[in-house]
Protein 1
Amino acid sequence: MIPRNIIRTFNNKLTFTHVPPPNEISSRTICFIPGFRSDFTTSKKADYIYNFAIQHRLGFLSWNHSQHGSVVDWYKDGLEIVQEHHVDYIVGASMGLWIALLISRDIPIQGIMGIGGGVDFTERWLQQQVPVEQRSDPESVWRKPSEYDSSGHYDIRIDFLLNSRPALLLDDPKAQFKCPSIQLIHGVNDHDVPIDTARQLYKYLSTNGVEKVSCLEVEDGDHRLSKSQDLALVHQKLQEMVFF
């Protein structure tokens, strides 16, 4: 588990943790970016990536997104914190992959891994799930059913969805990523981000200048991919990304 005594605040705004690599000569750092309304301090995947980093003498970085703003704001926050703490590899869970890819347009990243990556999910929600009468009303609040909240739903402001549009990736044919290797791990039984989304992203990245792209479909995998066998697969792919 990530020790509570290393959790701090970045720029008086974001809850984060940073463990510098112990060896400055061959220093490398791996970053975990959580998903929408997720918390790295309670995430099984964050704990797993942290333990991997410590065991392999890597640095570790993670943070929680602000409670307010849009994907554009969270990307800018992420870029700022990654630029201040040198990062070589990023693991992005769900929305975290979207943030990671946006960051890699600006600064070089050696490798990115997406776990149940949710790129452009805000637009899918807006166009496929939000009632038509609410879609253009920024003051409206959409009640999205969710098994991840104790209330059974998320209250989603429409202005959050609209303000996230400048961050959309899949409709940008000119996007260039400063990352030579991107791995996607996605559950076939993911009901939050359908597997076709991962397939579309794989095709998109393959035609946008990324040297090495892979998409591993986990036959019995769900969105979280936090079961022991899922994490064992993540461990294997982490080793491939970092050491080969």
Protein 2
Amino acid sequence: MLTNLWYVAEWSRAVRDKPVKAKLLGQNFVLFRDSSGKVNCLSDICIHRGGSLSNGWTTGRDCVACPYHGWEFDAEGKVQFIPSRGEGAQVPERARIDAYPTQERYGMIWVFMGDLPEAERYPIPPFPEFDDRANWRPIETEFTWRASVDRVVENGIDVAHTSFVHPGFGYREMAAKNHIAKMERTDISGSSSCVLYPPPMQGNAGLMRFARKDKAETHVHPAFYLSGHCVRLHIQVNSWMEMIIFDANTPVDETTTRSFVVQVRNFFRWGIFDKGSVKRTQKVFAEDAHIVEALSPNYLPESLETEVSVEQDKFMGAWRKVRKVHIEEKGWKIDSKAMAP
């Protein structure tokens, strides 16, 4: 797990008038809205006697109150009121907890898990299609993996496994023909363009009979972003049908990952098709989880010496290189044992 990055803590719609607990990087946090509607994020542990602030309530002072003794914490983590001392009483200088920067984008609450100044933080990944409701229809879903976030991200950008793990749109007999046509990498992200060959259509093929000709090419453009450990999968079914799957993968802890998923499509943009889109997306994630959760080791190896890679794995290698730089050169890897309570 890496620090000094933006991660998604929760859906925007989940945080309303009550505090909400969120777990990221093995630690518990509290999310709450103030009177202006802004979401704030603090450590969930009260400095007084360790109460869980997410079990408390919000107050008229734009604070979150601890359910144990009612101490009120503002958006900066400072105690503003101690009920047992009365109004106007001085608050000890040490009476404060850690606060974290937040932003709301794409229907998600992003929290910066680190101490870098604002100018040095990597940006939240772009997703312009989300706000383009005239041309794209969004759906939201999520998936929890019993796997490390690094394994989840690598699986998301690995198109070679499609031929074997996803029978709905992968085709084993064409595995050798699938290929990476183009690849680019920066210090914090990577993108590629791939050509896949889906399986032959069976029967009337349902709605897919409108989408492609039998044995037609499908163009897939995977991308990864270190910030948010995001994966963006742009799928061009044909010249007029496209969909994008954008997932922000949050490390709950070393072996649990929560994926916040938004899919947008430029076809069949009526609500009647949303339920089917969610169902199909969940099916794909479940197929992936069946494989990823059984990988050994369950974390991404630091060295490639224990594995054998081939040409089709080069984009995953790009992800590993970006990650490795931030571990070895920047020292951003979290020591989970040192952080354990």
